[in-house]
Design a protein that fits this description.
globular, about 20% strand, eight-stranded mixed sheet, single chain
Length: about 325
């Protein structure tokens, strides 16, 4: 049984022009020990999926799904308390901007201390438990590569550089020993050496502790090094998903092909200083969604049938939603 199993997740949000489907029939599953990449250009709905999973959406928005299970339990029918317990103890989230997730009015020591569950502490007097919290926090900071733990724990978020705050946010997310880490662009804005350090740390946690990771990122090179599987989103719809190696070798959806072509590291045949290819146009706003396949107006393979929504088709564990997929033309 997958840890997280989502089938046909739809999210409707109210805009000035009425209700729009920001997420349309999203499928996503994560097994134990799996690293799944979630990719798509800006505005494709990655963060909305993350927020739907952790239940951090405004109450007035409509979330429906045929299935949205955590370890076989339906997340959508749970009470707020049950859901909070899961997001506190079993899955953790690291968002792309640490300054928005950390409390500006508390020191980092206070913040990580609060996120250490009581179950991790031995019984004892309050000062003994305080010392234990400090030791656990210190060990956690060392694991993510923060050496000067005293300075870090006594500082407020604005007193430290962003990359240290981001490493701290990762340490805090891992302190409850979660089964699933949802990392939403965790290395955005980091310099290369720090980025490599964080990616290595996540890969190590996956290998040694069996941590499952939903890795949301624009960084295809990092993704291809880390992920076992990949889900590609376009404009709130799942366009392709499957094993990373398979999709990299033989993408079936034109959008996936365009994403891979736009990353220099995936183009072995690219001459020096050659222009990178990219799709014409931009992702439509939610208020002006095309009917049928949402990629239609930008798709180099679009034909008349694309005004109808393509069904999800499957070849073994490779899923795609396209009327005219690549590599599938009949001779
Ligand atoms: N609170 C909101 N109110 C209205 N529309 C929203 C809201 N949050 C997101 N959206 C819209 O939903 C769509 C998906 O947004 P989302 O933030 O999930 O994209 P994303 O793929 O995570 O982008 P990025 O990679 O830039 O973070 C966008 O069109 C965005 O404008």
């Amino acid at each position: 049984m997958p840890l997280l199993d989502i089938k046909n997740l739809t999210l409707e949000i109210d805009t000035a022009l009425g209700w729009v489907k920001a997420l349309d029939k999203i499928n996503l599953s994560i097994d134990s020990k799996e690293v799944r990449a979630l990719v798509g250009e800006s505005g494709s709905g990655k963060s909305l999926i993350v927020k739907s999973i952790v239940g951090a959406l405004p109450d007035r928005w409509r979330v429906t799904a045929d299935r949205m299970n955590w370890k076989g339990r339906d997340l959508l029918s749970m009470s707020d308390t049950q859901r909070r317990n899961i997001t506190r103890n079993e899955m953790s989230v690291v968002l792309q901007n640490p300054t928005t997730t950390l409390d500006p009015s508390a020191t980092l020591g206070e913040q990580i201390g609060e996120s250490i569950p009581d179950s991790m502490l031995d019984k004892g007097w309050f000062w003994q438990r305080r010392a234990q919290r400090h030791t656990i926090a210190m060990q956690q900071l060392h694991k993510v590569g923060i050496r000067n733990h005293e300075l870090c724990l006594s500082s407020y978020p604005h007193q430290l550089p962003d990359d240290v705050c981001q490493k701290f946010a990762i340490a805090m997310a891992l302190v409850s020993d979660p089964k699933l880490l949802i990392a939403d662009n965790p290395t955005m804005g980091m310099e290369t050496t720090t980025k490599i350090q964080v990616l290595r740390l996540l890969a190590k946690l996956n290998k040694t502790r069996g941590l499952s990771i939903l890795f949301v990122s624009h960084d295809l090179l990092a993704i291809s090094a880390m992920a076992d599987t990949m889900t590609v989103l376009y404009c709130g719809q799942t366009v392709e998903s499957g094993r990373m190696s398979q999709i990299k070798r033989r993408p079936l959806h034109p959008y996936t092909q365009a994403l891979l072509d736009s990353a220099p590291s995936f183009r072995r045949d690219l001459p020096p200083k050659a222009a990178l290819s990219c799709l014409e146009g931009t992702i439509p706003t939610l208020q002006h969604l095309p009917i049928g396949c949402r990629l239609g107006p930008r798709c180099p393979r679009a034909q008349k049938d694309c005004v109808k929504m393509p069904a999800v088709r499957r070849i073994h564990d490779h899923h795609y939603a396209c009327h005219f997929p690549l590599h599938r033309d009949k001779p």
